[in-house]
Amino acid sequence: MIKQSLKRINAIAWKEFVQIKRDPRSLALALGIPVFLLLIFGYGLSLDIDHVPTIVWNQDASSQVSRDFLLNFKNSKYFKIAGYTDNYRDIERMINNGGAMLALIIPKDFSHYVESGKTAPLQLITDGSDANTATIAMGYVRSVVAGYNVQLLTKTFNQKGLNFSQSLDVRPRIWFNEGLVSTWFITPGVIAMIIMIISALLTSLTVAREWERGTMEQLISTPVKAPELIIGKFIPYFTIAFFDLLIGLVMARFLFDVPFRGSYLLLFFLSALFLTGALSQGIIISVVAKSQLMACQLAALTTLLPTILLSGFIYPIFNMPKALQVVTYFIPARYYIVVLRDLFLKGNGIVTLWDEALFLFLFAFVMLFLAVRKFKKRVA
Description:
single chain; mainly alpha; abc type-2 transporter like fold; 4 strands; elongated
């Protein structure tokens, strides 16, 4: 019985491999889309905000004090001086057309205020249409101003022969991502998103294609059982999806220089669980849809949007409303992204990741069980 079952599974798997070989465009998409998405997200998507375009109106341009103050902005990687002006009209025009995000206005008595020890007014105009970026940019400005104030206090105390020391001496130490490179944070999430989407999309078309081409009736008339048919169709696409995973790992490691500090064996094991669940989900979609167009749309709807919006890929889960935080527990990509980021950056093992491993196992088991139960060997 087992030997005959394995033969039937092998026959279905071989048939599917032949079908994939006869459709090179689909195979090229299955292998090319991960590379394309990794390049787009890896190079194009960055959470680092630097080179903020800034326009300056220095009304005290004749003084050395104001020019020294501006050097703090010129020498910072977070600001890019987009131009200088002597009126508000240019400032309004530059901010309106997107040429500048910040406008820094230094008053004409700036040097007098500084040299006399008084509080010097400084105007900052910010384009608030992008609230998140504007908030970060204003934080950069406050940081530069705070540093300049410390320089002034130090200089004043030294002139009086006194020692100036701050009451707080913060010495930050960053773990796991010392350079705060956003690519290191994004790339593992992109790999999880690609694997989820590609896996569900590939298998969502396989059964629907059989119904559309009229070959499902032929399969139903054979001795092949439903679980054997599902597993036989599962194997080729598992191979392709696992190869996509390897491509993602190689690109992350050697193209984007993301360090890998964990166990490859643990990564492949947990990835296999995630792939099993994602591929089985695609088969469920395919069985329900019975149309390649509908299957493709359902696969995109149930994988792309949840993975991007509710998995913690870009937006932190703890910052979401409580109701959405509850929903994220049912998004399998949430757990796989944690696995990838921990293995890449932190080097954690199964002791730390056991709960994610448990959820991935449940996801794989439930999806595979539903895929086998949902498929019926009969014509409606």
